[in-house]
Amino acid sequence: MMVKLISKDQSQRVLQDVDDPSHTGLKNLLLGAIHKCLGNTKDAIQSFQLAARDEAGRQSNSYVQPYSCYELGCILLESPESVGKGRALLLQAKEDYAGYDFENRLHVRIHSALASLKEVVPQ
């Protein structure tokens, strides 16, 4: 199997061309992940917020909102002034969504993030 690597600009262009409303949340989740990897925190936050608010695609991509809340929460945990909001988003991702693909996997990641937070900031 051959894997073709594409540049960040190419991946963003491909995602920008996705017009199907049922895939808007997924598009924003992927754009957020790209921005996060590139260190564009402001753009990542914006993309994850858009993905988390996407109600139209919830039926076809039910995992998008909890994963977006998780990713957004993890970014917010990095800044002392937004730790509370980040923690709340992690708990929201864990408690407000159920029945989506890889739910158990996300719960493990949330548990790990919350446990590491308790090590840094004793409650």
Fold and architecture overview:
The protein is mainly α and 123 residues long. 67% of the residues lie in helices and 0% in strands. It contains 6 helices and no strands. It has helices spanning 8-16, 24-38, 41-53, 64-77, 83-95, 103-120. Helix 5 (83-95) packs antiparallel against helix 6. The mean pLDDT is 87.
Q: What layout of secondary structure does this protein have?
A:
Elements: H1 8-16, H2 24-38, H3 41-53, H4 64-77, H5 83-95, H6 103-120
List keywords for this structure.
single chain, 123 residues, mainly alpha, globular
Output the radius of gyration: 15 Å
Quaternary structure: single chain
Strand count, sense and barrel status of the largest sheet are:
none
Number of extended strands: 0
Low-confidence stretches: none
Task: Give the structure's gist in a few sentences.
The protein has helices at residues 8-16, 24-38, 41-53, 64-77, 83-95, 103-120. By secondary structure, the protein is an all-alpha fold.
